[in-house]
User: What shape does this take?
Amino acid sequence: MSLTEEERNAITKYRIEKAIQTLEDAKQIAVIKRWSSAINRLYYSIYYAATALLISNGHISRTHAGMMSLMNQFYVTTGVLTKEEGKLIKRLFDLRQESDYDDFVDVDEEDVKHYMPQVEALVEKLIGLTNDKR
Assistant: This one.
């Protein structure tokens, strides 16, 4: 699917707004101690920011695995993102998957407190890398 520059810009802006809102949701959910839900929202804040970056540069992914693959191809292996940032994306995806779909898997407060500042920094970095003209 090919997008016009106007469509790419609109989707990029929308995804950035969604990333910011979802990160705020994660913080609010953590206040009420719903750790698995907070991890879910942390992952999705990265997902929306990453897909905003990809779309802003003409790369479209329809799956989470595709997003991770494109992020590695265009940003981690090229050094734009660190290997640790690439691993963070994968780790949050895995945690989200496990806590959403596996039985007896619980995320705890320590997990959320550990990942929250890392996710905040990565989302900010991904947004900064977009070609968004906000």
